[in-house]
Amino acid sequence: MKFGKTWHPSNLIIVTNLSLTGLLTFSIVSSAIAEQACVRTTTGNVICGTIMPQSASQDSSIQRQRVEKNGLRFELQNCVRNGDAVDCNLIITNIGQKNRDLKLYSSQASGTGRSPSRAISNSGDEFSTTIYELGNERTTSSWRVRKTLVPDVPMKAKFTFNDVTSQTNQLALIEIGFGVLDPGTISTNFSGSTAQFRNVVIQSR
Question: What is the top-level taxon of the source organism (predicted)?
Fold first, then answer.
């Protein structure tokens, strides 16, 4: 004789059968592709079932981090390997009430009194960026790009970090150097600051 019991979690149906010999088995009913896994109970029985994988949207959401600083919102979308370089894509939004002028600084800003951008791996290697974009502005030589951001209108940005070894699969720190001021203010008033993101996984293309 067997006794059966059924549970109904949010996205699974788990059916268990308990025999007189005390062996507990269960099956998971689901339409998604899943992997098999087994665990041992406190009574010594082994229970096997399936683990539902995360969807692509769940995986990508892990990458997304948000920082609000100096009236701006920086959202890191992802960092993707491109050969020996890593492209990090961001969305930057002016969360203030009026237009703001934004400058993004590359690693070449070091020594200018501004805050340079950089990335550091978990093993302590530091990577520089000389290729970066803000809106439709792209530079490979200048240490800054500049755009006016309208309130609540997002703008894309991208930083390419160079010479990232194939063994590096996670960045302990990404620092985006920037300066911001109200239009009409003299350029020397640009403040130097950084938006920081931590423990960023490098995705494969």
Answer: Bacteria
> What is the mean pLDDT of each successive set of 10 residues along the chain, which is 205 residues long?
47 43 41 59 65 45 78 96 94 94 78 77 90 81 82 95 93 93 63 88 91
Residue appearing with tokens 């079932």: 49
Q: How far from 2 is each of 10, 22, 23, 28, 44, CA to CA, in Å?
A: 26, 10, 10, 18, 19
Convert the pLDDT of each residue in 113-161 to its tens digit: 577 889 999 999 999 887 788 988 877 666 778 899 999 999 999 999 9
- Of 165, 75, 175, 74, nearest in space to 120 by CA: 175
Residue type, 122: N
Give me the domains of the chain, ranges plus CATH numbers: 2-53 (no CATH), 57-201 (2.60.40.1230)
Three-state DSSP at 95 gives coil
